[in-house]
Amino acid sequence: LFSCGTSKEGESHLVEWNESEGAIKRTYSGFRKRSLGVVQFDTTRNRFLAAGDEFQIKFWDMDNMNMLTTVDADGGLPASPRLRFNKEGSLLAVTTSDNGIKILANSDGVRLLRMLEGRAMDKNRCPSEPISSKPLTINALGPASNVSAAIAPTLERPDRGPPAVSISSLGTIDGSRLVDVKPRVAEDVDKIKSWRIPDISDPSQIKALRLPDSIAASKVVRLIYTNSGLSLLALASNAVHKLWKWQRTERNPSGKATANVAPQLWQPPSGTLMTNDINESKPTEESAACIALSKNDSYVMSASGGKVSLFNMMTFKVMTMFMSPPPAATFLAFHPQDNNIIAIGMEDSSVQIYNVRVDEVKTKLKGHQNRITGLAFSPTLNALVSSGADAQLCMWSIDKWEKLKSRFIQAPAGRQSPLVGETKVQFHNDQTHLLVVHESQISVYDSKLECSRSWSPKDALPAPISSAIYSCDGLLVYAGFCDGAIGVFDAETLRFRCRIGPSAYIPTYAVSSNTAHPLVIAPHPSEPNQIALGMSDGAVHVVEPSDAELKWGGTPSQDNGPLPSNSSNPPLTGQPSEPR
């Protein structure tokens, strides 16, 4: 027997009773000292307790007074949300502050909801029965929206749960039998954690391919798909470029990059390696590397601490070199309207606007206090945004090259301010929202450089962020972490969709002391669910959802009807500019 409540003074309690003696057997800890509302709770599987408090859901193992974990359901909960498990313990309904209901699901719950959605969408099954007009949206921590009255009762089928036991009969049950009916703790702790986010940890759950490589391995510091989507270009820390090309075959008729077919590590007949100029006075491993690709994929601009080189992508030959260090170039971005104009971020914290055709620096922009680590153009805003290792953002007008505004990114709670370290930027397809990436956060800023939403490492993804980028359609954000994990987020809300563990895409991860992690993520230019990972051990992996899932985060397939958009921003087909 358990009870829960809140006193007039705001003190909340959750206790287990000894029914035969009428005394409190165990008091569970973890409530705030003065609750903002009346705390309510529920139990599941004869093992777990859940209560709504402090705008989140708190979980306990019945046999342990200390709190097991918490879930905020991606925000939007009232101070003391009401909640209720279904009988199987696979779904949890929780009230929201806007008078709605979110349905949380573990893996069993997701399968149940999919089954119910299939019934709801089958209009031929029972024409007289009211049917939800919208497809059911299933996410492990998101709301299962639009659950119609027709299917809601089936969630609580009386023949699925154990028979009810009266309170009076509990005192006569042998204690040893209670232990037998409880599931193993280790298994169910994992189940509770799965409420937090879908976790992909097995190679069978995704399609992953390590690209073949016969050239000496060195950590991958820059990675980019060609705009055609047929090839993948990597720049390693030793200043050597590697180009993989996919061929048209029966298994891959489009010839586009895929995890289903291994590409060829391509070199011209001469066997020439595309190698950057280096700075003899500084090891290449310590030099900042940067790369930019022309819109027609015919040439690439690149630097690894030495001069900036312009390569022919067909022959790998150097067409020209410029910008002798010091200072060295640290970031490159082509002007959106003129391929002859390049913005070059420098090690001395300046941004140089360079005209390749006349070999001339048009202007030099100064506003940062440390080296430039990111550049992004927006034709819509007629602006260039720069970011630096000083964790500062600067916006410049493209026509007069004047500074419009600047802002230091905010430190998340518990982090010392001001922040320092590489800060990367990328405009969304709408050209007004800006993705800002720092090891401490991924954030979205508006056209006035105001932060509208932010996410910081926590819970299932506690490690520092190494890289993050928009998907080509602008609906997802992919983030790489220093422990090897990949996080997939909704771009509009930064809601966490799923975690891809390193054991899923590195086959030997579990049986070796592999500590490799992605240093850079590249999005495919036309396949929004495909990414490439440039790793700290020199490997490059292409990763896609399994054929059964099609999309990240357990989104139902198109067979069940059209998918609702997760973003208010219109998707574009071109490849967005990439943060580095």
Automatic annotation (TrEMBL):
GO terms for biological process: regulation of DNA-templated transcription. The lineage of its organism: Eukaryota, Viridiplantae, Streptophyta, Embryophyta, Tracheophyta. This is IFT140 first beta-propeller domain-containing protein. Residues 301-410 form the IFT140 first beta-propeller domain. The keyword Cell inner membrane does not apply. It comes from Citrus sinensis. It holds the Pfam family Beta-prop_IFT140_1st. Residues 545-580 are annotated as: Disordered. Keywords: WD repeat. PANTHER family: PROTEIN TOPLESS-RELATED PROTEIN 2, TOPLESS-RELATED PROTEIN 1-RELATED. The keyword Membrane does not apply. SMART domains: WD40. WD repeats lie at residues 365-406. Residues 562-572 have a biased composition (Low complexity).
